[in-house]
Amino acid sequence: MLQSLYDRTIRLADHPHALWVLAFVAFIESSVFPIPPDVLMIPMILARPSRAWLIATVALVFSVLGGLLGYAIGAFFYDSIGQPILEAMGKGHAMQEFNQRFNDFGFWAVLTAGVTPFPYKVITIMSGWTGMPLGTFIATSILARALRFYIVAGLLWGFGEPIRDFIEKRLGLMFTLFIILLIGGFLVVKYI
C-alpha cells in the first residue's frame, strides 16, 4: 500500500498544478501524511531547475503551516482528552515534568525532526502537546525546514540528476550525522 501511495505521489510531480499539489503534500505531511514532500520536490526540480528555489519555498511555507496544524492537534487533544485522563490517574504532575524536559530540548527536537528522516509530524504534535512556546516552535520549524528543502533544491539545481541518488538514499543520514556533531559540539563547549 505504501509503495502505491509513493508511486502516485511521484506521478503528481508531472501534473500542471504540481506546485499546488506540493503545497498540499507539504502541509499534510507535517501533521498526518506519511510521504515527505521531497518525493515531489526532487522530480519537479529535475524537470525545471530554474524553479528550484520557488519549489523549495512552497515546500517550506506549507510545511511550516502544516506544522502549526500538528501543533494545534497536540494542543487540542492534550487539553481535552490527555490531561483529564492523567489527572484522574494521579499522574498530572508526571506530564508537567515530561513537558518541561521536552521543552528544555524542544529546539533540538524540532530542528532534528525538521531536517532528518525522523517524522516531523511526531514533533509538531508533541510540541503542541507539551505546550512548547509557539514562537520557538515556529522559528525552529522555519530554520529546520529551510535547511532541508533549500539544501535539496541547491544540490539538485547545481548537480542535477547525478545527485538524485545521493539525496534519496543518503541525505537523511548526512543530516542526522550533522545534528549529532552539532549537539556534540555544544556539549563539549558547555562542559569543557
UniProtKB/TrEMBL annotation:
Keyword Transferase found: no
Highest taxon in the source lineage: Bacteria
Pfam families hit by this protein: VTT_dom
InterPro entries: DedA_domain, VTT_dom
Keywords: Membrane, Transmembrane, Transmembrane helix
Transmembrane segments: 20-40, 52-78, 105-123, 135-159, 171-189
Gene Ontology cellular component terms for the protein in this record: plasma membrane
Nucleus in keyword set: no
All residue ranges annotated as the VTT domain in the record: 37-155
Protein name: SNARE associated Golgi protein
